[in-house]
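Exercise 4. Each item below gives a protein and its sequence. For each, produce the structure-token representation.

Item: Protein FAM180A (Cottoperca gobio).
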Amino acid sequence: MKIQLKIGLKVILWLSFEQVLQEVAAGTSPISQKTGSSVSDANLMFEFLLGGVEIDRDNNIVLLDKEMASMRSGRAFLSQINDNIPRSVSSMVQMETALKAQRRLLTQDQFDGLVLSMVYSAQQAKHQERKDLQEAWSEVLLQLANFTVHELRGSYLFSYA
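Answer:
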């Protein structure tokens, strides 16, 4: 299960990173039209996640790379993930339902929150001792990943029908 979560998370991050690069290169990204920093922001987020994360006793995400964690951008990243994402299975499902109900493309902040919610869900699924909680977090992770792929590609990875 642990290796599947890592692989799944890397695939989702690669898909979102690839989409950002394509949009910026084409000049079609709303963010790239406002600022030239979206590629560097995506690279930085990717570096933070590749450096490793874990959940502390207070259910906050911490970066394993202490140097990155001490950088201003590292502190901003941790603030975003720890202050702006849901912390329970039901809250994650509620967030996904609300985003789906919008019937329009997500804003950059909403998309970032979605990706970071997947990171948090993956970490929760990985560290649950009870099988039922591990399965619940894994299901949330799959739903968020499926919605993310739909947001990027226009079609779902799988259907619940």
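Check: The chain has eight helices and two strands.
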